[in-house]
Amino acid sequence: GQLVQSGGGLVQPGGSLRLSCTASERFFYMYNMAWFRQAPGKEREFVAAIIWSGGVTRYADSVKGRFTISRDNAKNTVYLQMNSLKPEDTAIYYCAAVVSWGLPVRRSDYDSWGQGTQVTVSS
Question: For the chain, how far is it from start to end, CA to CA, in angstroms?
């Protein structure tokens, strides 16, 4: 299925943004969802993941306590609420999806990707 992202943009340090990712997949509720990000010149890295039911989440240490991943299966949408943003959070953010037994955090474990959205944290 297709993943379409929205949100992002330019925000000052300490500010907040919310990213959304909506799936066209009929069986969205079966998919584990995640957010990754890629800064210029760096590898794409894991940010957060949420299990199909929403009952389990995982976060990269760098965003714990600042970012929250959530999902609304009735809307086929996963969200990433980003608070207390820092300049080092600047990157292109990607949502990803996979049907799996566990809740993976490796890029290679996900097989569907959104188009990416730019987040820039700067004063």
Answer: 37
Distance, in Å, from the CA atom of 61 to the CA atom of 47, rounded to the nearest integer, reads: 9
**Separation CA 84–CA 12 (nearest Å):** 9
Q: What ranges make up the beta strands (E) of the chain? A: 3-6, 9-11, 17-23, 32-38, 45-50, 57-59, 67-72, 77-82, 91-98, 112-113, 117-121
Selection from 119, 41, 117 nearest residue 87 by Cα: 119
- For the beta carbon of residue 81, count every other beta carbon within 10 angstroms: 15
- Residue-wise pLDDT tens digits, 28-39: 889 999 999 999
Dump pLDDT digits (tens) for 63-101: 999 999 999 999 999 999 999 999 999 999 999 999 988
Write phi, then psi, for 40 (nearest 5 degrees): -55, 130
